[in-house]
Amino acid sequence: MVxxxxxxxxxxxxxxxxxxxxxxxxxxxxxxxxxxxxxxEATIIAFVLSxxxxxxxxxxxxxIKTVPxxxxxxxxxxxxxxxxxxxxxKKSTVMVSTIVVLIGQxxxxxxxxxxxxxxxxxxxxxxxxxxxxxxxxxxxxxxxxSQTEQENN
Length: 153
Description:
Elements: H1 2-29, H2 31-53, H3 61-66, H4 73-91, H5 94-117, H6 123-152
């Protein structure tokens, strides 16, 4: 169980660095090319992880053809989401965009758990999502208030 917490912390840190790299790449190369850099990076990481796990047979054309076509829609949705994420991160902060993505992932996981696994939507999880939204809103109000005070001085 501890190793999952360690992996979660490492992946959280890498996620923030990844967003910063994506934003900088899109500033210099444009949104589409910056996003392409992310996909090339993810492809290389996927190859390395597959090699380390000993699952290189999953990279063969014959195996890829057995995967149902609708499963590749996740890549398309991820690409669109990444483009929106890069654009949104340029207009806000990395922290805000990370929290917005977290809220979206938590909300969608509740919906998908309900649809595919028949789990009841937990009111505590919904309250938790709203607490995250409230905390982010409160933080933004404090930042705007301090910026207004600095401009007035």
